[in-house]
Amino acid sequence: MTTYAALLRGINVGGNKKLPMADLRTLLTGLGHSGVRTHLQSGQAVFTADRGDAESLAAELTRAIEQRFGFLVDVLVRDHGYLSAVAAACPFPAAELEAKQLHVTYFSAPVTPDRFADIDPAAHLPEEFRLGDRCLYLYAPDGLGRSKLAEALARPRITKGLIATSRNWNTVTKLVELTAPGA
């Protein structure tokens, strides 16, 4: 049995793609998963599965959401080991920052620096980003909503062919906690 976090992209934002968390819990339970919990309303669910891997579980949940709710939602599924490693590898001083200043964008596949070649890091200072294992760390001192760098990083050329979804540092660390063995 492995505990996973499902990260859903773009639900319950601005009245679009409404997916109540109670319905998401019911859906995951109906798929045969146990220990189902959700975190916030923005698309995080934790569950235990005794079959499949992260990719097959994400595909299964994507299909189930589309069948049940009638819209397509990008889903990433990650296990505790991965989530913990991403948090531990943060290149910024997370303990010294406010959660709104630090974000992780999770990607469905590895990303290489060439995707970001047209972004001039100096033009966005003091904002910064660093690449990790299928993720990107973003330091935005004024928060994501005011970040010009976040806007540049979300360009279709950069995310083409990938599922990408971002979480603030509070959510990053909470998902590590919720997926920990015995949590």
TrEMBL record:
| Tree of life domain | Bacteria
The protein's matches in Gene3D superfamilies, at most eight in alphabetical order, are given as: SP0830-like domains
- Pfam families recorded: DUF1697
Q: Where is the signal peptide?
A: none
For this protein, the record's InterPro entries field holds: DUF1697 (IPR012545)
Protein name as annotated: DUF1697 domain-containing protein
